[in-house]
């Protein structure tokens, strides 16, 4: 992590092109990042990967609640890039949100783009990552959002704060993995390792010496800022012989809940307090996949790091020759996964109030499905020679390739997208039933968006289906945080299930885990004008089309209107 003061001259700006300005006392920060290739060795083999400033994971970005940050992204790599600030609501400013061909065209090699990152009520841990192709496999990092200057935490101030980034590693170039499964129509090759802070850990070949090690003092508190940056893995995570107290998720505080494990989906973050109250020695932290169906191939390896207590005088005796491993739920323990999720509640106190929408103006149900498309001569890799796909409400989203949707919306350019994304599944059936007819598996392709009036109060139920391969779906909405007011297994019952909603202290998140063969209900105020991406954060599901776009129209007042575009957007 590099810290520098604000620059005051062109000479300084040029000399700091490679530097991430991490923190300043002012409310406006200036940052420069260089996206470039770097050589990394993992699992006994070496390859070039795309990085920010040569680091994997990338640098930590630090801010205080309500700050504004300017980031100049300079693409020194050989492929297009975009950067998304995941969990930053960007009020009225989708121009810097980042998803390729949704809110901007990509930053081409040699080009640069100055992004304005406007923080509002986020507080805790969020993150940033690439948002085109599969570049986010290595282009990602944490964002620490501290309380406003002069304010404190709603829990005792920790002795130290530590990023824990969970990820995936392929021996092959991830672009090759992407291109292959698009070409064949089958599922992507599973990763060769999971990682903690970029390292696979002791249980993998050629990895022991570089295993991430967290050095701690005994009887201190550490705030772990945990990010799931993995492409396609929901994780169980734990530390041997230690409990963790969750105090925040997705940039919002929660009521403290103490647990010996946690579930964290791609796109989600967790703030957890670790108290180092055990015997001096070494302990493994570990993460492995939660995969609710064993019918789908997944990476079943376990990544580890080491929590090592510092020596006290000359009395240090190693705990054992091998640190103890934590107990993690079994791979397909859906009950354990959602017991953890169900334990999370918003802090909802005087200093951190919540505003759960009650008077709903728009009720929506989106069916999320794995699908297939036919291939000519049955030439694709899926069963019966078909091609795997994914959809929301039977529409497999097709991104534009010549101009982004935000520009088309702002400048009234026709033919790029269509309005009228359906509020309800166009085909109603027993979504979680068995032996569903094959014709239901084939969706329609389209670039349809859902338009909201400013100030709409939305309830959206995501309904999982058993089409194709039933599995959990972490769904992320750009531009908003939302309250998860309910979830369950089976088909959503519009008359009975809302009676059990939590409208008192539901968790406030930006990514919701929709359970296998089940549903999840969220509520939010559509009060952020602009164009905002909605998608599954399992990267292959996004590639297959489990996406759509929300457009929130301008309100009447000046502060309810979309900001004008910056002087220069990346050209298509």
TrEMBL record:
<dbReference type="GO" id="GO:0005507">
    <property type="term" value="F:copper ion binding"/>
</dbReference>
<dbReference type="InterPro" id="IPR002355">
    <property type="entry name" value="Cu_oxidase_Cu_BS"/>
</dbReference>
<feature type="domain" description="Plastocyanin-like">
    <location>
        <begin position="443"/>
        <end position="555"/>
    </location>
</feature>
<dbReference type="GO" id="GO:0052716">
    <property type="term" value="F:hydroquinone:oxygen oxidoreductase activity"/>
</dbReference>
<dbReference type="GO" id="GO:0046274">
    <property type="term" value="P:lignin catabolic process"/>
</dbReference>
<keyword id="KW-0052">Apoplast</keyword>
<feature type="signal peptide">
    <location>
        <begin position="1"/>
        <end position="26"/>
    </location>
</feature>
<dbReference type="InterPro" id="IPR001117">
    <property type="entry name" value="Cu-oxidase_2nd"/>
</dbReference>
<keyword id="KW-0732">Signal</keyword>
<keyword id="KW-0677">Repeat</keyword>
<dbReference type="InterPro" id="IPR034289">
    <property type="entry name" value="CuRO_3_LCC"/>
</dbReference>
<feature type="domain" description="Plastocyanin-like">
    <location>
        <begin position="161"/>
        <end position="311"/>
    </location>
</feature>
<dbReference type="InterPro" id="IPR011707">
    <property type="entry name" value="Cu-oxidase-like_N"/>
</dbReference>
<dbReference type="InterPro" id="IPR045087">
    <property type="entry name" value="Cu-oxidase_fam"/>
</dbReference>
<dbReference type="InterPro" id="IPR034288">
    <property type="entry name" value="CuRO_1_LCC"/>
</dbReference>
<dbReference type="Pfam" id="PF07731">
    <property type="entry name" value="Cu-oxidase_2"/>
</dbReference>
<dbReference type="InterPro" id="IPR011706">
    <property type="entry name" value="Cu-oxidase_C"/>
</dbReference>
<dbReference type="InterPro" id="IPR034285">
    <property type="entry name" value="CuRO_2_LCC"/>
</dbReference>
<comment type="similarity">
    <text>Belongs to the multicopper oxidase family.</text>
</comment>
<feature type="domain" description="Plastocyanin-like">
    <location>
        <begin position="35"/>
        <end position="148"/>
    </location>
</feature>
<dbReference type="Pfam" id="PF07732">
    <property type="entry name" value="Cu-oxidase_3"/>
</dbReference>
<comment type="function">
    <text>Lignin degradation and detoxification of lignin-derived products.</text>
</comment>
<dbReference type="InterPro" id="IPR008972">
    <property type="entry name" value="Cupredoxin"/>
</dbReference>
<protein>
    <recommendedName>
        <fullName>Laccase</fullName>
        <ecNumber>1.10.3.2</ecNumber>
    </recommendedName>
</protein>
<dbReference type="GO" id="GO:0048046">
    <property type="term" value="C:apoplast"/>
</dbReference>
<keyword id="KW-0964">Secreted</keyword>
<dbReference type="InterPro" id="IPR033138">
    <property type="entry name" value="Cu_oxidase_CS"/>
</dbReference>
<keyword id="KW-0479">Metal-binding</keyword>
<dbReference type="Pfam" id="PF00394">
    <property type="entry name" value="Cu-oxidase"/>
</dbReference>
<dbReference type="InterPro" id="IPR017761">
    <property type="entry name" value="Laccase"/>
</dbReference>
<keyword id="KW-0186">Copper</keyword>
<keyword id="KW-0560">Oxidoreductase</keyword>
<keyword id="KW-0439">Lignin degradation</keyword>
<keyword id="KW-0325">Glycoprotein</keyword>
């Amino acid at each position: 992590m590099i810290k520098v003061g604000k620059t005051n001259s062109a000479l300084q700006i040029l000399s700091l092109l490679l530097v991430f300005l991490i923190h300043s006392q002012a409310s406006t920060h200036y940052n420069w990042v260089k996206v470039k290739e770097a050589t990394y060795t993992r699992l006994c083999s070496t390859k070039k990967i795309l990085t920010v400033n040569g680091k994997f994971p990338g640098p930590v970005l630090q801010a205080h609640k309500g700050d504004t940050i300017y980031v100049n992204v300079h693409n020194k790599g050989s492929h297009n890039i975009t950067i998304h600030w995941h969990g930053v609501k960007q009020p009225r400013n989708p121009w810097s949100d980042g998803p390729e061909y949704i809110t901007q065209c990509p930053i081409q090699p040699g080009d640069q783009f100055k992004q304005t990152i406007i923080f509002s009520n986020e507080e805790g841990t969020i993150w940033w990552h690439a948002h085109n192709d599969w570049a986010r496999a290595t282009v990602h990092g944490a964002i620490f959002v501290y309380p406003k200057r002069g304010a404190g935490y709603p829990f005792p101030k920790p002795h130290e704060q530590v990023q824990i980034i969970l990820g995936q590693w392929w021996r092959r170039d991830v672009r090759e993995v992407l291109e292959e499964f698009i070409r064949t129509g089958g599922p992507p090759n599973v990763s060769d390792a999971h990682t903690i802070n970029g390292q696979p850990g002791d249980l993998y070949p050629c990895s022991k010496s570089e295993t991430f090690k967290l050095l701690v003092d005994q009887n201190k508190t550490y705030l772990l800022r945990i990010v799931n940056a993995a492409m396609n893995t929901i994780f169980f995570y734990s530390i041997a012989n230690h409990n963790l107290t969750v105090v925040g998720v997705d940039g919002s505080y929660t009521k403290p809940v103490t647990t010996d494990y946690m579930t964290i989906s791609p796109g989600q973050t967790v703030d957890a307090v670790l108290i180092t109250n055990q015997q001096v020695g070494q302990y493994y932290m570990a993460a492995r996949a939660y995969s609710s169906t064993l019918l789908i191939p997944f990476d079943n390896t376990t990544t580890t790091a080491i929590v090592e207590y510092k020596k006290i005088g000359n009395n240090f005796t190693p705990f054992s020759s091998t640190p103890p491993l934590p107990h993690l739920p079994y791979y397909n323990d859906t009950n354990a996964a959602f017991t953890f999720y169900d334990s999370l509640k918003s802090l909802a106190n005087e200093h951190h109030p919540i505003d759960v929408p009650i008077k709903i103006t728009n009720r929506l149900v989106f069916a999320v499905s794995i699908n297939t498309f036919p291939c000519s001569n049955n030439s694709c890799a899926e069963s019966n020679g078909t091609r795997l796909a994914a959809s929301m409400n039977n529409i497999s989203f097709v991104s534009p390739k010549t101009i982004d949707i935000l520009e088309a919306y702002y400048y009234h350019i026709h033919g790029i997208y269509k309005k009228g994304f359906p509020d309800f599944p166009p085909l109603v059936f027993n979504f979680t039933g068995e032996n569903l007819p094959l014709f239901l598996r084939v969706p329609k392709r389209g670039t349809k968006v859902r338009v909201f009036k400013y100030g709409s109060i939305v309830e959206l139920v995501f309904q999982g289906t058993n089409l194709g391969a039933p599995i959990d779906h972490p769904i992320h909405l750009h531009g908003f945080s939302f309250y998860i007011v309910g979830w369950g297994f089976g088909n959503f019952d519009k008359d009975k299930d809302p009676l059990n909603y939590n409208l008192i202290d539901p968790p406030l998140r930006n990514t919701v885990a929709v359970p296998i063969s089940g549903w999840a209900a969220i509520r939010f105020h559509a009060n952020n004008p602009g164009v905002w991406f909605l998608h599954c954060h399992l990267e292959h599901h996004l590639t297959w089309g489990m996406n759509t776009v929300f457009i929130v129209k301008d309100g009447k007042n000046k502060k309810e209107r979309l900001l004008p575009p910056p002087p220069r957007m990346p050209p298509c």
